Amino acid sequence: EAGSRRSVWGLMVTAGVSGTLVALYAVVTPFVTPALRRVCLPFVPATSTQIQNVLKMLENRSGSLVDIGSGDGRIVIAAAKRGFKAVGYELNPWLVWYSRYRAWRDGVHQNTKFYISDLWKVSFSRYTNVVVFGVPQMMPELEKKLEEELECNARIIACRFPFPCWVPDHTTGEGIDTVWAYDMKRSRGCETKILEITPETEL
């Protein structure tokens, strides 16, 4: 009977440990491995210095903001605390749900939205401020996509890796915390047109 009890107890402990490991794997895996996407874009949390550098590039800016590949939502939440209506697009559903929880916890859920979506299937044309945490493989194609979609008043802020062709208008930070800002009106060569008004002639 004692041996039988030990056997039952052993099975219960094994089942409990196994269940815990499965649950832990389900929760942790999406945070440390990239979701399936065209370009491998692993989740690497932004440092506090990077966030401050991004916010510095947003000074005196207004309008809507989008974070492409928003991860755990920390950039979106920080921007919302500065008064932006901020949106994050992220393919990993676990990170999106966690971002929504963080926004609710920090009291900015009314000024934030998070979507589960592939960045290549989204149009960013309605945003005037774009933040990107990318990898070198995706930057050339993303550069073309943003150039086609964004208006001349947009600003793109790239973190960790710059765009290959655009020349940054502003740069701050160093090392992995470097942030580059690109104003579309200069990158695209947009010019403000001055309308010439000809005086009416008397008949």
Automatic annotation (TrEMBL):
Transmembrane segments: 7-28
Compartments in which it is found: Mitochondrion membrane
SUPFAM superfamilies, A to Z: S-adenosyl-L-methionine-dependent methyltransferases
Gene Ontology cellular-component annotations: mitochondrial membrane
Entry keyword annotation includes Mitochondrion: yes
Record has Kinase as a keyword: no
Gene3D superfamilies: Vaccinia Virus protein VP39
A GO MF label: protein-lysine N-methyltransferase activity
Keywords of the record: Membrane, Methyltransferase, Mitochondrion, S-adenosyl-L-methionine, Transferase, Transmembrane, Transmembrane helix
GO BP annotations listed: methylation; positive regulation of sensory perception of pain; regulation of mitochondrial ATP synthesis coupled proton transport
InterPro entries: FAM173A/B (IPR026170), SAM-dependent_MTases_sf (IPR029063)
Membrane topology: Single-pass membrane protein
Family assignment from sequence similarity: Belongs to the ANT/ATPSC lysine N-methyltransferase family.
Protein name (record): ATP synthase subunit C lysine N-methyltransferase
